[in-house]
Design goal:
By secondary structure, the protein is mainly α. Helix content is 68%, strand content 0%. The protein has 3 domains: 3-107, no CATH class; 108-132 and 201-348, no CATH class; 138-195. The two termini are 39 Å apart.
């Protein structure tokens, strides 16, 4: 259902509610309007239209029409904030970051709320655009399932060997548990329609000094479909980790500064990640529909970083430009750390 149809349906529901309860929404004397002298949430004596202790509205309007009125208000209020936030995020990211840091927040979507919303859009886009790719890969998934089931039968037979020591039997039990978990995951992937095959893993080498990463690479080579599904799952679940990973790198641009603290850097990083996520969605759509000029979008991230650094921290053009170079390298390092984290978690 499109956004227009959704809002149209909500409006029809609101009109229907007014038909059922013509007095709905009329605050003076309507049947659903209550007249409390104390807050129904915390019991504080009411002064004004909202409780000064917990912020809840002073009175409750118990009508069907009032319910849909609140729903519509919530949707359009959020949408209003979005349309005030996104233009600044795109054209004046430094001003948006500075406004939020300085406490002028009522007009904007908070960084973390916008970040979660952008991540939701990103992974929705990824899942939506992987449909054609997934249709060609069912055989690989079935092959992986058969292999895991065969391994499980062999392990269970090995478990019954009376000559096994207690230590060896414990290792077999651990392998059985992992194999069953893999089978359950593959069956979940199969039922969801997300399948992967045709991935060339011949060039993957276990050359890392991190044992956990080597183990993850080995599992990727053995079963790329299962590994990719886990990578997608953990990327979504751990997307928030990009923020704490990135903040220390930004701090290095202003070491021991008394003007700018970790809070400032966290707001900066979160809004920046929101923009980069939206840019990634645009690139995905452009690739999907073979739009021309996508190469020019490679210039957008450093330009955005330059504008955000200058506006947020009040830097000169030269100071902002110099820090943009370092921030670009730091961003790449943060992405590599995040990718390593995801690979290790997916291979666990």
């Amino acid at each position: 259902m499109s956004g227009t149809e959704t809002f149209g349906g909500m409006a029809e529901a609101f009109a229907a509610a007014r038909t059922v309860e013509p007095s709905a929404g009329e605050y003076a004397g309507d049947r659903g309007h209550t007249h409390e002298s104390a807050c129904l949430n915390c019991g504080t004596a009411l002064v004004g239209s909202h409780c000064h202790a917990c912020g809840q509205a002073a009175h409750v309007h118990k009508t069907l029409g009032a319910f849909f009125h609140d729903l519509l208000h919530g949707v359009f209020h959020f949408e209003g904030k979005i349309w005030r936030t996104l233009p600044l995020l795109i054209t004046k990211p430094g001003k948006l970051t500075r406004e939020y840091i300085d406490g002028r927040r009522a007009s904007y979507v908070s960084p973390i709320a916008l970040f979660l919303f952008c991540m939701f859009l990103l992974f929705t886009a990824i899942n939506s655009m992987s449909g054609d790719f997934s249709k060609t890969t069912a055989n690989s998934l079935e092959t992986a399932l058969q292999s895991e089931r065969k391994d499980l039968v062999e392990l269970e037979a090995h478990r019954k060997d009376p000559t096994e020591t207690a230590a060896d039997r414990a290792k077999v039990d651990a392998a059985i548990a992992e194999t069953r978990n893999n089978i359950a995951t593959l069956e979940k992937v199969k039922s969801s329609g997300i399948t992967v095959s045709g991935i060339d893993t011949s060039d993957f080498e276990n050359g890392s000094d991190i044992p956990a990463l080597n183990e993850a690479i080995a599992k990727w080579k053995a079963n790329p479909g299962l590994a990719l599904y886990k990578v997608q799952t953990y990327s979504y679940k751990l997307s928030w980790a990009l923020i704490p990973i990135s903040v220390p790198f930004l701090w290095l641009l202003f070491p021991f500064s008394r003007r700018f603290g970790l809070y400032d850097h966290t707001v900066f990083v979160t809004y920046s990640l929101c923009f980069m996520t939206l840019l990634g969605i645009v690139v995905m759509i452009g690739v999907r529909f073979a739009l021309p000029g996508l190469g020019l979008l490679a210039l957008v991230p450093p330009i955005h970083m330059l504008l955000q650094l200058r506006g947020t921290y009040g830097l000169s053009w030269f100071g902002a430009w110099l820090r943009t170079w370092f921030l670009s390298m730091f961003s790449f390092a943060a992405l590599m750390l995040f990718a390593t984290l995801i690979l290790v978690e997916a291979g666990g």
